[in-house]
Amino acid sequence: MDNKHAFWQAFVIAVIIFMAGIMLGIVFENSRTSKLEGFYRSSETEIFDVQLTGNLLANTLNFDCSTALEENIKFAERIYQEARTLEKYDESNKITEDIINIHKKYDLLRTMLWINMIEFQKKCPKETNTVVYLYQYIEPSIEIQAKQNTMSKIILELKKKYGDKVILIPIAYDTDVASLNLLKARYEIKEFPVVIINQEYKTTKLSTLEELEKYMIL
Hints:
Distance between the termini: 82 Å
Helix content: 55-70%
Oligomer: single chain
Number of domains: 1
CATH superfamily: Glutaredoxin
Number of helices: 6
Number of strands: 4
CATH class: Alpha Beta
Largest sheet: 4 strands, mixed
Structural class: alpha+beta
Order of helices and strands: HHHEHEHEEH
Strand order of the largest sheet: 2-1-3-4
């Protein structure tokens, strides 16, 4: 009887500890989600402002490339820094779908920035370079993760070397953003991860910095 009593006591304690761990995990996840929602709302306001500014500038007779570029650079830098913050949250295991949904919202904002830069480069083709990096976000294999880590380091080096001459836009291709799916079809992008430079050059290989520089406007 004593053994049975001890067994049930241990079982109940184990269940309590397990449930407490689950609850703490959910609380922690909700806290992370709330912070990311705050980041997103701030970015959302800014990108709509950038988009509206771009539309106004595009409809003027004397389109000012320098002003339009400055506005896009400010937002690109903001979203780039916040993407680094998002990556830190992504390092921990996901318990709910909330973080994936937040990531999708960021991917939508980055897609809007890419569309804005496509229109900008039509009017000001020699002002800067758009470097888009499409990568797998949801459950990449170890092999894909290793490849993406290397590719991201290379394009980060590109950004650091050329500064405002490069608008870097990393986007997860697998969060089902409809507008991004249309862009993938337009530019016939079927393999991932992939780096796209100025909507013309695409590579899924582990290119060197020097190789990417050949396709940039310098």
